[in-house]
Amino acid sequence: MLNTYEHDDADKLIRSVREVVPSIASLIERAMSEDVDVVYVNDNYGAWDAGPGDVVQRALAGPHPDLVEPIVPPDDVTAFVLKARHTIFYQTPLEYLLRQTLGVERLVLAGQVTEQCILYSALDAYVRHFEVVVPPDAVAAIHPELHEAALEMMRVNMDADVTPAEKIRLS
Is residue 26 a contact partner of residue 91, using CB atoms and an 8 Å limit? Predict the structure, then answer.
């Protein structure tokens, strides 16, 4: 979600992001107020010298800071994991962080892109025996028809809870 939106398909994605940013921001607020761990996982966009602050600043300096500002991680965020590929688990320390440090059993996935990163991350979470929750109003897509198909695949094949963000039990 911390993105400059300067890539192929950005226009399609931006439309979807505008719709889901309020739900994502609300989920983050609710989690923080309920003392639920929030872990940011974001692409590094090939910038191997970038840290979390660099990723945030690049996104804010892009042409759509209005899509980034509502979800900028607060200074006291639990963790920020940088990833290089489509899934949050591929060659990242996320599973260790979730299991060993935070004792997490259930993940609520929010962000982009439903038919790519969210789908692949949900599958990786499922095969690692995490409970998976994907609020359809808190995930952005490039292709609406693939968004719906991906949500259905997660529900059917990964036993994902596909519940609207405001109805999700966080704690």
Answer: no
